Amino acid sequence: MWKRFLRPFSGYINKMLPEVVFVLGAPGAGKGTQCSFISKEFGFVHLSAGDLLREERQRPGSEYGEMIEEKIRNGEIVPVEVTCSLIHKAMQKSGKTRFLIDGFPRNKDNLDGWERVMSDKTKLLFVLFFECCRDLCTERCLGRGAAGSGRSDDNLDSLQKRFNTYLNATMPIIEHYERKGLVHRVKAESAPDVVFEDVKKLFNKLDRIDN
Ligand code: UP5
Ligand code: MG
Questions:
Q1: What's the number of CA atoms in the CB half-sphere (13 Å) around residue 43?
Q2: Ligand 1 first shell, C-beta below 6 A
């Protein structure tokens, strides 16, 4: 009865929910680079789960600092309670309504945790999946490390672990969303501006808003 009464408003209610695009791809595929372009051109707020974890690791008094550092160096995935709460807080703090969530969800624990806490509070628009071969990704991350990124995981040992985690834990999540018809694949081996041409085509289809 109530459901029938509310049905005419469901589109309106959906519109009020913050909108989310998950951005996935191998380490070094260019997620962060493309997110900053999208953010500038389309007004989405860019939230990198990895950056939020690195910030939390640096926060004086954080009870999770050591655990986060160990996970990151070993290419393992931080428990979803920590990551999801950082994402949620950052969304609330921004006061905005459209978000790129970069590098999340990357395993089943992440997916389940997001569904439990956030899926009713947000609307998932789609999943942007950057495809880039392992050699190129490795070369990019090692190049960034050599240029002084300061990231404790931009080394060959960590990269091998990051790739194993990506293949074993993250690919099944991308396949999960693919079965739901939510994945947009973008080839990410060309120069950043060339990759962005394809990305733009996807975002141009969405309504522009002043986020
Ligand atoms: N570059 C980018 N695009 C290029 C292009 N088209 N051509 C040539 N060069 C290009 O780019 C990487 C480098 O390549 C840069 O030097 C860039 O200039 C160049 P970037 O845009 O940073 O790629 P990105 O895909 O973002 O690579 P990143 O290393 O950030 O990916 P990861 O997914 O490995 O890292 P993230 O920060 O997301 O996660 C790190 C760790 O945090 C994880 O391994 C995990 O331990 C932990 N984590 C969690 O536990 N949970 C989470 O939810 C998220 C992270
Ligand atoms: Mg990144």
A1: 12
A2: 25, 27-33, 48-50, 53, 71-72, 75-78, 83, 103-104, 106, 110, 140-141, 143-144, 153, 162, 188, 191-192, 195
Residues 57-91 have pLDDT tens digits of 999 999 999 999 999 999 999 999 999 999 999 99
**Per-domain residue ranges for the chain?**
33-199
Fold of 33-199: Rossmann fold (3.40.50)
- Kindly give the residue spans of alpha helices, DSSP state H, lying in 118-155: 134-146
What would the pLDDT profile of 31-53 be if each residue is shown by its tens digit?
Answer: 999 999 999 999 999 999 999 99
Say if residue 2's pLDDT is above 80: no
Ligand 2 ion local residues (Cβ < 5 A): 31-32
pTM flag (> 0.85): yes
The rounded percent of the chain whose pLDDT value lies above 90 is 89
Whole-angstrom CA distances from 83 to 30, 95, 114, 130 are 21, 19, 10, 21
Nearest to 205 by CA among 104, 130, 126, 91: 126
Residue whose CB lies within 8 A of the most ligand 1 atoms, among 31, 64, 107, 109, for a mutation test: 31
Query: With contact defined as beta carbons under 8 Å apart, do 49 and 87 qualify?
Result: yes
